Every structure is written in C-alpha cells, then in structure tokens.
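Q: Given only this backbone (228 positions), what sequence would you predict?
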C-alpha cells in the first residue's frame, strides 16, 4: 500500500489538534476526522481508514473503550496520542488492543515514522512458510495464527512481533533488535511497551503465559522463539 492511497482517521475532540494533524498529514495521506468516540466508530465503518490516530480523552466514550470496541471487529492499526503519560494508562490502551502509544506533545516526524510502521503492518508477506510447534500453527503468507485449532485474534503489532520471532526461531533477539526489526531502525521505543506487547501476545497463544512454551525469555537480554 502506498502512502498516497492510505486513509488515516484522526480522532480528537480538540479542533486545533485535528486541524494541525490534518495539515501535517494531508500531503501524504487522505485524512478523515472524528471529534467523539461514537463518531470515530461510525467513520471507521463508513470511511474504512487504514490507520487510526486516537486521543483517549474524548467527551463521550473514553479512547480505551473505543479501542476495545474497534477490536471486536477490525484489525486496523490504532496509534494512541494522549497527554496521559502514566504507565497504567499505556498498559490499559495496549491491553485494549492499541498498537502504539504516543504522548503529547510529540514531534510530527516521530508521528510520521510511527504511521509508516503501522501501515507496513498491513502489507501481506508473500511465499513465507508455515510455522508449527505443538499446538501453534502460523501461516506467514496468509497471516493466519491458530492455537489448538482455534484462530488467535492478534493486533497487527502482536502479529509482527510473532512473525519476526518465527523468522529467527531458535535465535535470541535482544529487546533493541526486536524493536528495530518490528518498528524500524529509526524508531525509538520504550522497551517496557515491547514487554507489554509480548505479554499480550503470550496471553493469546500460550496455554500458560506464566510458563510459556513458544516465546521464551532470556533474562536481561531478550526473547527466543522455540524452533518448530
């Protein structure tokens, strides 16, 4: 998908912020807007955006709840943009299904980098193999993840982390290596957010997330995927 064909939904109740983001993004993307949570849900259905920039402090429905409701039926990448910078707010948004979290104020360059990453998550890999280990089966070409015969509902970021780990199965990847392979070499991200995404991924594919069989932790270093 080219940037020029991508549609980005900006959800924020503050008109100046929507105006700023519209002006900043419109040169590369088609920009849609919503000022409330309910409007965001409606525009997602009617406008079919490829990525969503979502404020948490909306006047009707909190952004975490909007994320949770969107995740009931769509895998569209969601980037939270919020003044809330507490760890528990970030965890709540990611647990609800957000793919990324950017704290206001932010640089437009960083936002554009994160959008490019989110849109890359939509690209389908071609000709990649099927990974199988015990009850886990991942078809990388079809982006299909099955656990004991049931489909696992992963966010785009969770899927990309799993894909990278599978492509390097048996090899230890450091936190920084994983961040670069999933988000890009020019991308800076708190390792804590990576750990939250790993935790969410384990809950979806591991029988016992406390004693994982597939995604193994190398203490103080990073993670290693079990060889299929």
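A: Predicted residues:
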């Amino acid at each position: 998908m080219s940037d020029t064909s991508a549609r980005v939904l900006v959800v924020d109740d503050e008109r100046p912020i929507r105006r700023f983001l519209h002006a900043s993004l419109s040169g590369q993307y088609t920009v849609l807007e919503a000022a409330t949570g309910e409007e965001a849900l409606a525009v997602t259905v009617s406008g079919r955006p490829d990525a969503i920039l979502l404020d948490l402090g909306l006047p009707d429905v909190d952004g975490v709840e909007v994320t949770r409701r969107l995740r009931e039926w769509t895998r569209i990448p969601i980037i939270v943009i919020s003044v809330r910078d507490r760890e528990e707010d970030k965890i709540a948004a990611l647990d609800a299904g957000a793919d990324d979290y950017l704290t206001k104020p932010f640089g437009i360059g960083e936002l554009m980098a994160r959008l490019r990453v989110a849109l890359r998550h939509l690209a389908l890999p071609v000709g990649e193999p099927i990974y199988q280990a015990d009850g886990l089966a991942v078809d990388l070409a079809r982006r299909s993840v099955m656990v004991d015969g049931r489909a696992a509902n992963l966010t785009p970021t969770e899927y990309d982390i799993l894909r990278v780990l599978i492509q390097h199965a048996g090899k230890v990847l450091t936190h920084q290596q994983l961040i670069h392979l999933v988000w890009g070499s020019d991308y800076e991200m708190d390792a804590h957010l990576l750990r939250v995404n790993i935790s969410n991924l384990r809950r979806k594919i591991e029988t016992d997330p406390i004693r994982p069989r597939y995604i193994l932790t190398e203490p103080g270093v990073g993670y290693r995927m079990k060889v299929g």
